[in-house]
Write a structure and sequence with these properties.
heterodimer, A: 314 residues, alpha+beta, Frizzled cysteine-rich domain, OB fold (Dihydrolipoamide Acetyltransferase, E2P), 2 domains, 6-stranded antiparallel β-sheet, two-stranded antiparallel ribbon, 8 helices, B: 354 residues, alpha/beta, Endo-n-acetylneuraminidase fold, 3-stranded mixed β-sheet, 9 strands, disulfide bond (chain A), differentiation (chain A)
C-alpha cells in the first residue's frame, strides 16, 4: 500500500518535473519512524520513550494508533501522570461535542511516536474548542491554558489536521438538550454528579429569567433543604439565583413546568452559582432517594470528572 | 661514575613531569568506556581508564554508581564543547583524556573551567539519576521546608541535589586529596574551582510547577525543586570563566592561600574561578602551550561575536568554499501515522581561517 502510494507520488513528481521542463531537485519520498535520539523538545533526564498505549488509558486507547511518546506534549513524564490528568477529560469525550475531540486531546496526551513531535494544527484546536468550550463553560470550566490554540502551529503539512470533522452528517441535526438537563438514572450516576458538584439542594423554583445566553433560576423563599452545603453559607441560601450557562436556547424538559420541588446541583465559581444538574424531585424514585441518603458515603475520586453526562459513546 | 648523571637526569625529568600532572579531570576518560564493559562486577573497576586508586576503590564499593558516572563524563565533554564552540579555544582537547595537552595540564583559565564543569556535571548527573530511578541507592530529593506558595503544593520528584553533591565530590575530588601529587598551589586551585562548579549547580536549583487541576486547570499546581539543564549550568560557568581571576600562592598567617595577583587586598571569592598561569591567544598552533591554533577552523562572516571571521582567524584572513548539503524537505505527516520527506540538495557557502 505504502509502496504503491509512493510510486504514484514519485510518478507525479516526475510528470510535474517534465512539465516544468527541468528535472525536479526533490527525489523519491523517504519514510521516517521512531528514532531514539530526540531532535527537539525538552527531555528531562531521559530521551523520549515509545510505549504501547495502555488499556487503562481509555481516553486514547481507541484513538487509531497503538504507541505513544513519553514525555507527551503536555510535559507529563510518567504513564501514571498521563492517566491521572487524562481521566478528567473522559466525560467531555462522552459528550461528543466535536467529532475530532479524541484526535485533538490524544495528539497531546498520547502523541504518535515519530522522529519529531507532531503537534495538532491550530485549526484542529479551534474546531475542538468551538465545539466543546461552550459545554465546559456551562459547568464553570474555562478552556484551559494548556490547550490555548495559539500554542499550536498554523496549518501545515507536519501537523495533525481535522480528521473527521469534514464528514457529512448522517442524520439531520436535532436541537440538543441542555447539558445540565441530561438525566442520570442510576444512583451511582447521581452520586458521581454530586461528587463533581460543590453543593446539592432540594428547592422550589419561583421563576426563570433569560440573561444574555444564560438562563437564571430564581429560587422560591420557602421549602428549601441544603443536602450538601459545600461552599454555601446560610446567607447564600436565603436568595438562591442559579445560572444555567449557555442555557438560554436549548430545551430542558425538567423546567417546562415549575410546580413541585427540584433536586439541584451546582458549583460556586467566582461568586456566581452555576447549575450543573437539575432533576424533578420524585419521592417515589428509589434511585434518587438512595443517592441522597448515601451521598457522603460514596467514594468520590480525588480527581473527579468535572461533570458526568448521561450520553454514552456508541 | 659516568652512569650517575644519566640517573640524575631521569629523576629530574620525572619530577618535572610529576609536578604538573592534573589527576583531577583524568576520570573524564570514562567517556570512552566501551558499552561491552557491563560494570556489574568489581573486577571491571581495574579496567577503567583515568582513575586514581581512591576512585577505583569507590568504584568497587559503589558499583551501581559507575554507569551514571560514565554518563557524566560524556555529558561533561559534550557540554564543554557546546559551550565553547564559538571560541578559539573550543575544548576540543578534552577528547584527549586522560593524556591532556598543556592547555588543561597547566593551571590555566581553561583548566579552571573544565574542573568546575566536571564537578558540576557529575553531581548534576547523579542527582538526576536519583530522580529517574536509575540509581537504587537514592530516591527523590526532600520536600522543602518552606511553603510552596498560594494555590501550590509540593509533589512530583525533586532532584536529589544533596546526594549528587556528596557522591559527586567524593569521586571527582579524590585525586586532589592524595597528598603526594602535585604542588599545593595547583591542588588548592583545582579544589576551589571544583567547588565553584558545585556552587553554580546549587544556584541552579529552582522551583518548577505544573498545572494538575481538573481538566487542565491551574486550580491545583504541583511544584518540585528541579535543577536547570546542564547546558545552562555550563553557560553560567562560561560567564565565570570570562571573568576569572589570576591568583598567586602567598603566605597569609601560618598558611599559604590563593590571593588575587593584581588586587591582593581581598580574598578570593567563593563564586569566582581562579587560575595560576595565563593562557596564550590560541591563534597559532603551539604544542608548548597546548594551542591547536585556528587554521582551518570554520568562522562566521556575518557575526560580531567571538566566532566572527576577524576574531576567530586573528586577522589572518579566511577562505570561502562551497559545500553541498543534503537535507530533508517537503515533509508531510499522514494520518495515521507516518511522515514522508523528500531529499533536497543545496549549496552553502562556508568560511575557514587561513
Amino acid at each position: 500500500m505504502w509502496v504503491a502510494w509512493s510510486a504514484r507520488t514519485a510518478a507525479l513528481a516526475l510528470l510535474l518535473g517534465a512539465l516544468h521542463g527541468a528535472p525536479t531537485r526533490g527525489q523519491e519520498y523517504d519514510y521516517y519512524g521512531w528514532q531514539a535520539e530526540p531532535l527537539h523538545g525538552r527531555s528531562y533526564s531521559k530521551p523520549p520513550q515509545c510505549l504501547d498505549i495502555p488499556a487503562d488509558l481509555p481516553l486514547c486507547h481507541t484513538v487509531g494508533y497503538k504507541r505513544m511518546r513519553l514525555p507527551n506534549l503536555l510535559e507529563h513524564e510518567s504513564l501514571a501522570e498521563v492517566k491521572q490528568q487524562a481521566s478528567s477529560w473522559l466525560p467531555l469525550l462522552a459528550k461528543r461535542c466535536h467529532s475530532d475531540t479524541q484526535v485533538f486531546l490524544c495528539s497531546l496526551f498520547a502523541p504518535v511516536c515519530l522522529d519529531r513531535p507532531i503537534y495538532p494544527c491550530r485549526s484542529l484546536c479551534e474546531a475542538a474548542r468551538a465545539g466543546c468550550a461552550p459545554l465546559m463553560e456551562a459547568y464553570g470550566f474555562p478552556w484551559p491554558e494548556m490547550l490555548h490554540c495559539h500554542k499550536f502551529p498554523l496549518d501545515n503539512d507536519l501537523c495533525i489536521a481535522v480528521q473527521f470533522g469534514h464528514l457529512p452528517a448522517t442524520a439531520p441535526p436535532v436541537t440538543k438538550i441542555c447539558a445540565q438537563c441530561e438525566m442520570e438514572h442510576s444512583a451511582d450516576g447521581l452520586m458521581e454528579q454530586m461528587c463533581s458538584s460543590d453543593f446539592v439542594v432540594k428547592m422550589r423554583i419561583k421563576e426563570i429569567k433569560i440573561d444574555n445566553g444564560d438562563r437564571k433560576l430564581i429560587g422560591a423563599q420557602k421549602k428549601k433543604k441544603l443536602l450538601k452545603a459545600g461552599p454555601l453559607k446560610r446567607k447564600d441560601t436565603k436568595k438562591l439565583v442559579l445560572h444555567m450557562k449557555n442555557g438560554a436556547s436549548c430545551p430542558c424538559p425538567q423546567l417546562d413546568n415549575l410546580t413541585g420541588s427540584f433536586l439541584v446541583m451546582g458549583r460556586k465559581v467566582e461568586g456566581q452559582l452555576l447549575l450543573t444538574a437539575v432533576y424533578r424531585w420524585d419521592k417515589k424514585n428509589k434511585e434518587m432517594k438512595f443517592a441522597v441518603k448515601f451521598m457522603f458515603s460514596y467514594p468520590c475520586s480525588l480527581y473527579y470528572p468535572f461533570f458526568y453526562g448521561a450520553a454514552e459513546p456508541h | 661514575m659516568r652512569a650517575r648523571p644519566q640517573v640524575c637526569e631521569a629523576l629530574l625529568f620525572a619530577l618535572a613531569l610529576h609536578t604538573g600532572v592534573c589527576y583531577g579531570i583524568k576520570w573524564l576518560a570514562l567517556s570512552k568506556t566501551p558499552a561491552a564493559l557491563a560494570l556489574n562486577q568489581t573486577q571491571h573497576c581495574k579496567q577503567l581508564e583515568g582513575l586514581v586508586s581512591a576512585q577505583v576503590q569507590l568504584c568497587r564499593s559503589n558499583l551501581e554508581l559507575m554507569r551514571t558516572i560514565v554518563h557524566a563524563a560524556r555529558g561533561a565533554m559534550k557540554a564543554c564543547r557546546r559551550a565553547f564552540a564559538d571560541m578559539r579555544w573550543n575544548c576540543s582537547s578534552i577528547e584527549l583524556a586522560p593524556n591532556y595537552l598543556l592547555d588543561l595540564e597547566r593551571g590555566t583559565r581553561e583548566s579552571a573551567f573544565v574542573y568546575a564543569l566536571s564537578a558540576a556535571t557529575i553531581s548534576h548527573t547523579i542527582a538526576r539519576a536519583c530522580t529517574s530511578g536509575d540509581l537504587p541507592g537514592c530516591s527523590c530529593g526532600p520536600v522543602p521546608g518552606e511553603p510552596p506558595g498560594p494555590g501550590n503544593r509540593w509533589g512530583g520528584c525533586a532532584d536529589n541535589l544533596s546526594y549528587g553533591l556528596l557522591m559527586g565530590a567524593k569521586f571527582s575530588d579524590a585525586p586532589m586529596k592524595v597528598k603526594k601529587t602535585g604542588s599545593q598551589a595547583n591542588k588548592l586551585m583545582r579544589l576551589h574551582n571544583s567547588e565553584v562548579g558545585r556552587q553554580a549547580l546549587r544556584a541552579s536549583l529552582e522551583t518548577k510547577c505544573k498545572c494538575h487541576g481538573v481538566s487542565g486547570s491551574c486550580s491545583i499546581r504541583t511544584c518540585w525543586k528541579g535543577l536547570q539543564e546542564l547546558q545552562d549550568v555550563a553557560a553560567d560557568l562560561k560567564t565565570r570563566y570570562l571573568s576569572a581571576t589570576k591568583v598567586v600562592h602567598r603566605p597569609m598567617g601560618t598558611r599559604k592561600h590563593l590571593v588575587p595577583k593584581d588586587l591582593d587586598i581581598r580574598p578570593v571569592k567563593d563564586s569566582e574561578l581562579v587560575y595560576l598561569q595565563s593562557s596564550p591567544d590560541f591563534c597559532m598552533k603551539n604544542e608548548k602551550v597546548g594551542s591547536h591554533g585556528t587554521q582551518d577552523r570554520q568562522c562566521n562572516k556575518t557575526s560580531n561575536g567571538s566566532d566572527s571571521c576577524d576574531l576567530m582567524c586573528c586577522g589572518r584572513g579566511y577562505n570561502p568554499y562551497t559545500d553541498r548539503v543534503v537535507e530533508r524537505c517537503h515533509c508531510k505527516y499522514h494520518w495515521c501515522c507516518y511522515v514522508t520527506c523528500r531529499r533536497c540538495e543545496r549549496t552553502v557557502e562556508r568560511y575557514v581561517c587561513k
